Amino acid sequence: MYLKLSLRNARRQAGDYLVYFVTVVLSAALVHAFNGLVFSEELRSLSSFMESLPAFIIFTSAMVVCVIGWLIQYITVFMLSRRSRELGTYILIGLENNQVARMFFLENLITGGIALLAGLLLGNLIFQVLRAITLSLFHAPYTFSLALSPRATALTFVYFAIIYLLALRKSRKRIRTMKIHDLIYYEKQNEAELVKKSRNRRRLFAAAVLSGIVGMLLLLTGSLSLCLIGTGLLVFFLYGFFLSFSSGVPAWFDKRPVRKYTSHTLLVFRTLCAKLTTMGLTMATIALLFTVTLVSEGTGMLFGTLFENRVEGSTCFDIFLGSVASENLEAEFEEETHPTGEPNFARSGLEPYLEYIRQEIPLRASMQYDIYRGESLQVTDYIQGNAEYYGYYKYDPLMACSDYTALRAMLGYDPVTLESGQYIIHCMPYLKNIMEDYEQPVSVDGTVLTPGAVFTEHFTQKLWDGNGRGFVLVVPDECLASRPVSHSIYAAMTVEPLTQAQDDRLREIHEYQQGGSAGLNSFTTGDYTLMTRTSLEREYASTSACTIFPLYYLALVLTMVSATILTVQQLSESVRYRRQFSLLGKLGMDKREMETALRRQFTIYYAMPALPPLLISVPFLWNMGHAFEPGTINGPWHLAEILGITLGLFFLIYFVYILIAYGNLKKNVLG
Amino acid sequence: MLQVNAIEKYYGSKNNVTKALDRISFHVAEGEFIAIMGASGSGKTTLLNCISTIDTVSAGHILLNGEDISELPPARLARFRREKLGFVFQDFNLLDTLTVEENIGLALTINHVNPHLVRDKVQDVSMRLGIDDILSKFPYQISGGQKQRAACARAMVAGQSLILADEPTGALDSRASKNLLEIMSKMHQEMHATILMVTHDAYSAGYATRVLFLKDGRLFNELLRGARSRSVFYHEILDVLGLLGGDISDVS
């Protein structure tokens, strides 16, 4: 009989708390899908970089599980308070506390079990999406298969078993020890105010606002220790603000009665204060979670841009080999001064690479050329004075016009011509505007050249041994007849993208030649740099999978969990709001005004926990965007676009919950 | 001021019709304090709801200051209610999230009164009703009698011409009831408020200047207090109630 009652209650519970139920299903699905990544041999074998993926995912899952645990615990206690009268009635008609506790336990376990089951099924599909994304990042073929590791299923099950047993054990204990009276009147108990005295709350409000401002300023300093102190102050701000809001704002309005009695302000701010009085702690936690969400999403986006930029910007060639421009090599290259001649690469130790490439890799085009030393640092100085730029050379780098036009042809860029007496500037896109303003002539071996066109296509200009660092000046070949060589480059475009085996072999040669390990991320060893598009793409794919996936995973679950708590809280107030608006109707408020008041009340309720996170995360992310290496973020609009997408993603999910809540609330209250 | 002309009210579907009000007519002059009495189910609250435009009549007309409120379009009803009517409910119906001052001021903000004047008007009416010392308190911090006085203040602060009270002493103890009724008498005598009060308590009805008795939806009798003392009037009310055949509980 109890089982029957539990089953019926479980069904009703799923209906009443549909938003919560759906969130648990989606959360379980995400946890399960990411567990699939942890145990996927196929994905781990894609690259040696992917070995660390399970550690990242498990670490994130631990945080996610804590947050889901908080949601389930919160809603279980919430349901207990809402249903305490019903549970008290069961005891009143003769059931024992133990039996009622078991019934409550059982029905929650049934709903949880169903949610988990649905989550496992949906998780399999989400895993397929993640698998497809990962494989496409590595340009590996994707075939649909529903098979998921039993170990992933077991891990998801263990996570949820722990969450449910811990959450329900507490409620079970509570029901077992409660008296009928306590249960029947449990609903009427308010959440205790943590700061009881109104005066103390007002002080806390002022202190919180102050610490918020100071915390934000410290966070933007960029110094690690100050950032940590700033973070602490911001956490204090969030909790202090929400715990004291219910006193601070009424006190503010009390001094400004005219504002208070204007339009719907009175109703709106009082309803909000009442809500915050009872759920200040919850609101603060939600605001904190939203802050973490926005920072996670934004960081994910910024890192995504950074990695993508590295692939795109590091080399535009399929294979790039460059000697390092350094003082030690000066003597070695000084002899090789002819711009169109064949630099002696064999002597530089590049022959083993070239031999392998000639034998094994079909090439569409290849070129060996030099970068020369300019006579002065005038362009470098100009850039350093006008933009963020990390200089490397002690001279402005120069390139022969014939090499430049040949390289452009190899890369498929539009042909250009160098006007007589001019030089071309080829720079990274972020320097375009300031280079277009540059009007100074440059002297090369006695020839004075004036600035010509500026080009910004990708041209391997990020590193110190590329086609200049950030920029290169393209000058007539004859000007370079007696200029010393800065460094030499071999660049090639292949017929087909390099296979993993070819790429690995090139790296082996590279490591052997340089007598050391090439490391995970650096392609530079000893005197030479080897970069292949395949390697960079693999690195990008691995770092994306290891950092961006977990950050988005965390952000998604945090948004859903927080929005669910807000929504369940809001919908549970339907009866009280209906009573309130029915009274307002009797007092003569017309329906349109009631709708406006409800909408404002609702908007502020959902905006409250999202506003402080916005104020914290947007400047933080803006600052972080500027901290990246120059050229990663291409101007403020690019950064604004990244922030816009971050906020768009967050609000997209948030708005789904808001719309569901508003639709239901409007129907229940004014319908 | 208020004219109720042959109003009827039916509830239910085609096969099961209940007649809640049956051709009721009466007139209320400005400054009158009228009590409507009757047993449970006699139609008292239905009548009050029809006058207050919360419910609609099935037939007949209700005129307030010459305006037929039974024919007002829905859009104008809300305006009519907030400008002309003040409500006092049995369970106070104060918003628990607002202070007493704000609860009273709410009637003014709904009426779009200039925000600069709200505090003064609230202060003025609350002084007259003796609740100016509890204005900063929330409803849960004050007694039932104080809550009901706050509700009275809200009912008249915007200058409403007719105050409708539905069992205003229903949730009060005898001392608080007496206190409230004296306040209502004061509102009637000193502030010339027109009050229409529904009650099944003969003691409360004794404070009115006229009592209308309802039975099974019809107007059964009418008593005018005239120059009689409240105690004599009270006993006359009890006599009529005896004739009405109500339970002993109805004459408390």
Describe it for me?
The complex is a heterodimer of chains A (671) and B (252). Chain A is an alpha+beta fold. In chain A, 66% of the residues lie in helices and 9% in strands. Chain A contains 22 helices and ten strands. Chain A has a ten-stranded mixed beta sheet with strand order 5-6-4-7-3-2-8-1-10-9, with helices on both faces. In chain A, helix 5 runs antiparallel to helix 6. The radius of gyration of chain A is 32 Å and the shape is elongated. Chain B is α/β, with parallel strands linked by helices. The two termini of chain B are 32 Å apart. In chain B, a hairpin with a 2-residue loop joins strand 1 and strand 2. Chain B has a six-stranded mixed beta sheet, with helices on both faces. A four-stranded antiparallel beta sheet of chain B has the order 2-1-4-5, with helices on one face. The interface between A and B is medium-sized, with 25 and 30 residues.
In short:
The complex is a heterodimer of chains A (671) and B (252). Chain A is α+β, with helices and mostly antiparallel strands.
List keywords for this structure.
heterodimer; A: alpha+beta; 66% helix; 9% strand; B: 252 residues; alpha/beta; four-stranded antiparallel β-sheet; 26% strand; disordered C terminus
Poorly predicted sequence stretches spanning 5 or more consecutive residues of chain A: 328-347, 517-525
CA distance, first residue to last residue of chain B? 32 Å
Q: Regarding quaternary structure, how should these chains be classified?
A: heterodimer
**Mean pLDDT figure of chain A:** 84
Tell me the total number of β-strands of chain A: 10
The interface involving the most residues is between: A-B, 25 and 30 residues
Helix content estimate of chain B: 25-40%
What is the typical, i.e. mean, pLDDT of chain B? 87
Strand percent estimate of chain A: 5-15%
- Helix-strand category of chain B: alpha/beta
- The helix/strand order of chain B is EEEHEEHEHHHEHEHEEH
Number of helices of chain B: 8
Q: How many β-strands of chain B, per DSSP?
A: 10
- How far the N terminus sits from the C terminus of chain A, by CA atoms, comes to 37 Å
Strand line-up across the major sheet of chain B: 6-7-8-3-9-10
Tally of alpha and pi helices of chain A: 22
Strand content of chain B: 25-35%
Strand order of the largest sheet of chain A: 5-6-4-7-3-2-8-1-10-9
- Shape estimate of chain B: globular
Write down the Rg of chain B: 18 Å
